[in-house]
Specification:
With 135 residues, this protein is an all-beta fold. It is 0% helix and 47% strand.
């Protein structure tokens, strides 16, 4: 089976789109990669405009407060349980479980804490920038 997607060529104002493009996909559950030391961030798909990463948390691991000054970030929970925190002057929290999707708006501090093993993917425009919250 060919792993190529042809783009339409008739009357296309974007000649670059006429080239064949390799499909870029990942199964984030079949390729779980946990680390004992810290949360493991694996970049599965990245283009000039977007990135899709998956975070693999062991129980108690934390993706500490940070923000992205140039773009929104959307999280998708695949497995496990945890808490998503958003701080825009007032801290809010949301229980994470499979099926939950949550937005971290551009420029807003956010954090994830794992209660159990947790698998969370995210999509962000590129470049979004990243700033860690001072402690």
């Amino acid at each position: 089976m060919k792993n190529l997607l042809p783009h339409p060529t008739s009357n296309n104002p974007h000649p670059k789109l006429e080239e064949e493009v390799k499909m870029n996909c990942a199964n984030v559950i079949e390729t779980k990669e946990f680390k004992n030391e810290n949360v493991n961030k694996v970049t599965h798909i990245k283009s000039e405009q977007m990135a899709a990463d998956t975070y693999y948390f062991k129980p108690g691991q934390v993706l500490d407060y940070h923000r992205h000054p140039e773009g929104d970030q959307i999280f998708f929970v695949h497995e496990g349980e945890g808490v998503f925190l958003l701080d825009n002057g007032k801290e809010e929290s949301l229980a994470l479980k499979p099926g939950v999707t949550v937005l971290a708006p551009k420029g807003i501090w956010h954090k994830i804490v794992a209660n159990k093993e947790l698998v969370v993917s995210q999509a962000t425009k590129q470049p979004a920038g990243m700033e860690a919250k001072p402690k």
